[in-house]
UniProtKB/TrEMBL annotation:
Annotated keywords: ATP-binding, Nucleotide-binding, Transport
GO-annotated molecular function: ATP binding
Biological source species: Nocardioides conyzicola
Annotated ABC transporter domain residues: 13-241
Descriptive protein name: ABC transporter ATP-binding protein
Entry annotated with the keyword Iron-sulfur: no
Length: 269
């Protein structure tokens, strides 16, 4: 059997008419199509149950679509792969391994030489601010620290694509802002393609090149909002009229579906 050549101009990720009907007959995704270019940062927002996680799981190769296909570099996704790092809301650390060992774990299954593994682990420990806790077990860490450890573990493998499902959902507001800044700093230094699910409209706009707004019944793309704000994104930018306008536009696309995500609605006075 011959494999079709990968087109040079293929988007990094291509979702083509993907549908998902679960075994109980529930249709979680209707007909979803989306291209994500190399090095893009795309966030996905939408009401609970509109199929965000289902779509991400299909990209991760953890679920199979029941119609259409998902492609990475022009090749159909057929299970998980090391080029796609997945980060969930729950940290999923190994409790019996130290922070350092948890970060190193993913690297053991790659062909990275020992010296390079060590270098990378120290680099990502430093990047997420956990060097001082490297020899601690996860049970001694706060929720935000555990999540930073999970993020370092995913980054250390150098996946070309990061698939993130509400990764900062369980951390306090201040840690969340720091994690957002760290993620953007890493993304701009090391360039990855990121697909990031969130319920937080501010977070969606702050991080993304494009915000994909989904709707439910069945899950589908309602609107795509281009975020033409410059990087690096700063705290001042969050207060700017341009940011507020985009935030309100995304909010309105979600809000006018008749369901509300978490977070405060825009003031209308
Ligand atoms: N294995 C399954 N079998 C049947 N239905 C499922 C299954 N997994 C998810 N669903 C349903 O599919 C729909 C989409 O779920 P999904 O988790 O993708 O939504 P979501 O947009 O990520 O929601 P949330 O924002 O609450 O995390 C939901 O109605 C959910 O109940």
């Amino acid at each position: 059997m011959t494999t079709a050549p990968v087109p040079l101009d293929a988007p990094k990720i291509s979702v083509r008419h993907v549908g998902k009907r679960f075994d109980n007959g529930f249709v979680a995704l209707g007909d979803v199509s989306l291209d994500v270019e190399d090095n893009e940062f795309v966030t996905i927002v939408g009401p609970s149950g509109c199929g965000k996680s289902t779509l991400l799981n299909i990209l991760a190769g953890l679920e199979e679509p029941s119609g259409g296909e998902a492609l990475v570099d022009g090749v159909p996704v057929d299970g998980p792969g090391p080029e796609r790092g997945v980060i969930f809301q729950q940290y999923a650390l190994f409790p019996w391994l130290t922070v350092r060992q948890n970060i190193e774990f993913g690297l053991r299954t790659t062909r990275v030489a020992k010296a390079e593994r060590r270098r990378r682990v120290e680099h990502y420990l430093d990047l997420v601010g956990l060097t001082a806790f490297a020899d601690e077990l996860p049970k001694t860490l706060s929720g935000g620290m555990k999540q930073r450890c999970a993020i370092a573990r995913a980054y250390a493998v150098h996946p070309e694509i990061l698939l993130m499902d509400e990764p900062f959902g369980a951390v306090d507001a201040l840690t969340r802002v720091r994690l957002q800044e760290q993620l953007l700093a890493t993304w701009s230094q090391e360039r990855r393609t990121v697909v990031f699910i969130t319920h937080d409209v501010d977070e969606a706009v702050f991080l993304a090149n494009r915000v994909v707004v989904m709707a439910a019944g069945p899950g589908r793309i309602q609107e795509i909002v281009e975020v033409d704000l410059p990087y690096p994104r700063t705290e001042e930018l969050r207060l700017s009229p341009e940011f507020t306008a985009l935030r309100n536009r995304v909010w309105s696309a979600v809000y006018h579906q008749g369901a509300t995500p978490s977070g405060a609605p825009p003031t209308t006075s």
